[in-house]
Each structure stands twice: as C-alpha cells, then as structure tokens.
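## retry 2 of 3
previous attempt timed out at serialization; input unchanged, resubmitting
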Amino acid sequence: MTEEKVILVNENDEPIGLMNKLEAHEKAVLHRAFSVFILNDKNEVMLQQRAHQKYHSPLLWTNTCCSHQREGETNIQAGTRRLYEEMGFSAELKELFHFIYKAPFDNGLTEHELDHVMIGYYNEAPKINPEEVENWKWMSIEAIKEDMQIHPEIYTVWFKIIFDEFYHYLEEHKL
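## retry succeeded, writing output
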C-alpha cells in the first residue's frame, strides 16, 4: 500500500503540491485537512477515542472524525468518506469555516493544517472501525469545555484548538 499523500496549500487554500502524509508532519508543512463534528438532537457532540494502535495520540479523545482530503476530492466528499470509514455511518455535512493552526504531536511530529470544519447531525450509535476508533460517547458542548479544563491530557492537541474555534463559531452564529 502506498502512503497517503496530503494536499499542500498556501494560506489562501490554493493547492501547491502533494507530499507523503508522514513527511508533511515531520516537516510541519501547511496542508489541507478537515474536522467533522456530529451532533444529535440533544445538541451533544459525538466524540471518538482514538484506537490504541494509532501512531500518534492513541487513546485520546477527539471530535467525531478528522483527516485529510485526497487529490480531486471536495471537502464534503472527504468528510463523508472518512466519517463512514471511521464511524460506520453517513450524515449530510455542511462546511462551517476554515482556519490555520499549528500543533505538535506527542511523538515529535507537527500538524500544520488549513482545517475545514464541518457539522452534521445523527442520533444513532456508530459502527466504529476498531482499527481507527477505540470508543465513542456523546457529550454536551458545555461538558466538553469543562472537561477539557479539568482533564486536558485526555484530549488530542488539535481537538483542543479546533473545539475552541468551533465553540466560538457556535456562540457567534447561535447554531
């Protein structure tokens, strides 16, 4: 299997090339990514706990799913694909906003992403892929915010950054 490539972008989200995912994380090169937040009708977020065998951030809690777009794939297509691969269900996704962040991993690699944040709605239990996901749970937005302050070590580095942006977006747009 060939290693997955990420789409390198400039600060305007214009593609400037492709690079192997691991190399992009070693060199902290800006690349396109996405983060999906699935909410239920109680306004709770579906969180996933990363699988124990993941090469970085194993067993840490994060948003419903996140990954990288493939060449020729729209943001929504990528989010829909990865949501099904990791969580075993499909939901209609809507892109909310995008922003750039840089965050170190626990193993010396660095995320430097132009992240497209999407939202979708679903009320059932997922059919998690055990190679990607260890566990899952619903949590209210306020409970996540409080728990991150009390137990920041159980959440992925990028989720803490992305959740803050998501939280402020929801406040401003009254979603």
